[in-house]
Amino acid sequence: MKTILVTGGAGYIGSHTIIELLQSNFNVISIDNYYNSIPLSYDLIKKITGKDFKKYQFDIAQDKDLELVFQENSIDGIIHFAALKSVPDSVANPIFCYQNNNNALLNIAQLAIKYGIENLVFSSSCSVYGNVAPIDLPVQENTIIRMAESPYAYSKQNGEVFLKSISEISTLKVFALRYFNPVGAHDSGEIGEFPSKHSNNLVPIITQTAIGLRDYMMVFGNDWNTRDGSCVRDYIHVSDIAEAHVLALSKLFQEDFNNKFEIVNLGSGQGVTVFEAIRSFEKMSGVKVNFKVGERRDGDVEAIYSLPNKAKDILGWFAKRDVDTMMDAAWKWQNKLIDLGFNTTKI
Ligand code: NAD
């Protein structure tokens, strides 16, 4: 049985990926400092899978404990999720973002090489494409990389550059997976993204509005050059993303797979507008969402969606769950959060 070190395993995508790993018979070791998560995620993973795994709590970017994990365990592969993902926080405190995201990655890569671990999957992001122009759509892995729009996006651009050069001079093989817009929650409705002051994603805002935690939500601009005037994004179900990680690791473990550094888009290939997302939610939940249309927001891109063909060719992966399924799961999770004692006060 292969053992996978998952950094940021208590977080949103990490926890869903651990579920897929355990259900695919991998051993899991997780490290998280709970900066943007809570240990309850681990209990929910155990409830869903019936399996337990080893956990560590410390800061990968700073703590000397990281090497102990490599000494104590025989690790076959690493999935590196741990990062600060809030774009506004990264703008407000770029040093913290770079220190955390880039130091954590370099620490992991250095120890992976020292301990002879050859297989690494890195959480990258569609934000690396920068301010995408309409001519770039749909974005492919070789679409021109424009100037990063935030320190967060720059930390992901850097992360890819670091890993490419490190893989060239070491035994490390890397998949950098560029996620588009992960949303939704596990099909069981038992786990999803916990509310966080560091998150300002559309779908939690829709569900929080529907359940009455917000009086209304804002749609930032209805005068974009899109089919209904609102921004277009490529939403992707978190469990589809999680499954892609298992496929990427399995590919790296394949003896005849010797590619050193591969970048792969993880998107559905479908652009969905903000108004379409709201309508899909209303259809699936039967609840009306109160929204207001405001001014365009600084830094927003009009439209971004992927061409996910490479994921299909190299990993045999494609998005199985559509937007309605994502909204249904997100709504189940919003209600579950109330049962778990979260989200009882107005935002
Ligand atoms: P998340 O914040 O829910 O999970 C990240 C986890 O890493 C958190 O549990 C946090 O506590 C932990 N962490 C952060 N820094 C750490 C450190 N120095 N030491 C130990 N633990 C640390 O975020 P997520 O949505 O699960 O995202 C996972 C990865 O995917 C991140 O790298 C993120 O940048 C990337 N990504 C996310 C999205 C998205 O919209 N969710 C989109 C593209 C890329």
- Structural class of the secondary elements? alpha/beta
Our count of domains comes out at 2
Overall number of strands: 13
Radius of gyration: 19 Å
Q: Do you know the CATH topology of the largest domain? A: Rossmann fold
Describe the biggest sheet? Answer: 7 strands, parallel
- CATH C-level class of the largest domain is Alpha Beta
What percent strand?
A: 15-25%
Total number of helical segments? 11
Percent helix? 25-40%
Judging by the overall fold, what is the CATH architecture of the largest domain?
3-Layer(aba) Sandwich
* Head-to-tail CA distance between termini: 45 Å
* Large-scale geometry: globular
Give the rounded overall mean pLDDT.
Answer: 95
CATH superfamily of the largest domain: NAD(P)-binding Rossmann-like Domain
Order of helices and strands: EHEHEHEHHEHEEHEEEHEEHEHH
Stretches with pLDDT under 50, minimum 5 residues: none
Short note summarizing the structure:
The protein has 347 residues and is α/β, with parallel strands linked by helices. The protein contains 11 helices and 13 strands.
Description of the structure:
The chain is of the alpha/beta class and 347 residues long. The protein folds into two domains: 3-183 and 235-266, NAD(P)-binding Rossmann-like Domain (Rossmann fold); 202-232 and 269-340, UDP-galactose 4-epimerase, domain 1. Helix content is 39%, strand content 16%. The chain has eleven helices and 13 strands. Strands 3-2-1-4-5-6-11 form a seven-stranded parallel β-sheet, sandwiched between helices. A two-stranded parallel ribbon has the order 7-10. Helix 1 (12-23) runs parallel beside helix 2, helix 5 runs parallel beside helix 6 and helix 7 packs across helix 11 (323-339). The longest helix has 21 residues, at 94-114. It is globular, with a radius of gyration of 19 Å. The N and C termini lie far apart (45 Å). The model has no long low-confidence stretch (mean pLDDT 95). Bound molecules: nicotinamide-adenine-dinucleotide.
